[in-house]
Design brief:
3 domains; 336 residues; 434 Repressor (Amino-terminal Domain); six-stranded mixed beta sheet; 12 strands; alpha/beta; Rossmann fold
């Protein structure tokens, strides 16, 4: 029969309430009592949950995947999560993956990160699309709990990212080589993550290198990477009489698909009147009519690599932080 908390209490000569307080790291318990209970837990092999295992082994066998909410709409988070799970499965599910979605609130995210750290609830953090503040990073370094960031960069943390500058550059360059000179850009705000500014710079530099004037009025910003925002963006281009012959949706395929759908309703022919290129190559980008030309990010591979780095960092295999950069590729279909 599996040992119970009462068995531990009897072995240690304390109450079962005291055992529970030790397991939950209650500060009111003296060090002497704590060690007595931990010794009893070891002797009878009592592992009620991850909290107890954490106290005994100094590990939770959990890796936390922390994301802001906006990635749900872009599929980036979903594909990345699949990569994490794939690596873990290939390695016999060595770790539990626990996902936390914090929204854009930095304070809420900071509270969560501290709770994960000081509650010993995770052996590593994989963060998607945000940068912890310097104090948080310092606290994690002090506790030797690694952080791996995806689509973000910071000092003293590991990084996995796609070359967003390159992806935007090749998309814009492709449109230019197809004879398009008046290319509109749909972008996320720069505060959303590392990617929007990099993609903006890739777009702008491609125009510059091909002798095409950059025009601020050719840019529309969206907040949430949604299909409806794409529909509104093309209406805005039309209503403001902005003269464009192509649109690069650096804000993702959902937005680009909204553009395509609304363009048809407005009598705009794709790609004859306006060529459209998206970003991400989500599954449904092939199903829109016409099928979407887009930039494919290796998100599954990025997720796998992030998890591999997290596991290796837990095992102490790195002397310094590592960075892995993946190259995106242009997938040519019929929208451009």
């Amino acid at each position: 029969m599996r040992p119970t908390i009462k068995d531990v209490a009897k072995r240690a000569g304390v109450s079962h309430t005291t055992v529970s307080m030790v397991i939950h790291n209650d500060k009111r318990i003296t060090e002497e009592t704590k060690q007595k209970v931990l010794k009893a837990i070891k002797e009878i092999n009592y592992y009620p949950n991850y909290s107890a295992r954490s106290l005994i082994q100094g590990k939770s066998n959990t890796i936390a995947f922390v994301t802001p909410f906006f990635y749900f709409s872009s599929f980036f988070e979903i594909y990345t999560m699949h990569g994490l799970e794939k690596y873990n499965l290939d390695n016999k599910n060595k770790y539990v993956i626990q996902q936390f979605t914090t929204g854009p609130d930095n304070e809420r995210r900071n509270e969560l990160l501290r709770e994960l750290l000081y509650g010993r609830r995770a052996d590593a953090i994989i963060g998607l699309g945000f940068v912890p503040n310097e104090k948080i990073i310092e606290e994690y370094r002090d506790k030797k709990v690694p952080i791996v960031l995806i689509d973000a960069r910071a000092k003293f943390v590991h990084t996995v990212r796609a070359d967003n500058y390159y992806g935007a550059y090749i998309a814009t360059e492709y449109l230019i080589k197809k004879g398009r000179k008046k290319i509109g850009l749909i972008s996320a705000p720069f505060s959303a993550s590392l990617a929007p500014e990099q993609r903006f710079n890739g777009y702008k530099d491609a125009l510059k290198n091909y002798g095409i004037e950059f025009r601020e009025e050719n840019i529309i910003y969206v907040e949430h990477f949604l299909f409806e925002e794409g529909k509104e963006a093309i209406k805005e281009f039309v209503e403001k009489k902005i003269d464009i012959d192509a649109i690069f949706s650096a804000a993702g395929d959902w937005v680009a698909m909204g553009v395509v759908t609304q363009a048809r309703k407005l009598g705009i022919k794709i790609p004859e009147d306006i060529a459209i290129v998206g970003y991400d190559d989500i599954i449904v980008s092939e199903t829109v009519m016409p099928p979407l030309t887009t930039v494919r990010q290796p998100t599954l591979e990025m997720g796998k690599k992030a998890f591999e780095i997290a596991v290796d960092a837990i095992d102490g295999k790195f002397d310094k932080e590592v960075e892995k950069i993946f190259k995106p590729e242009l997938i040519i279909r019929e929208s451009a």
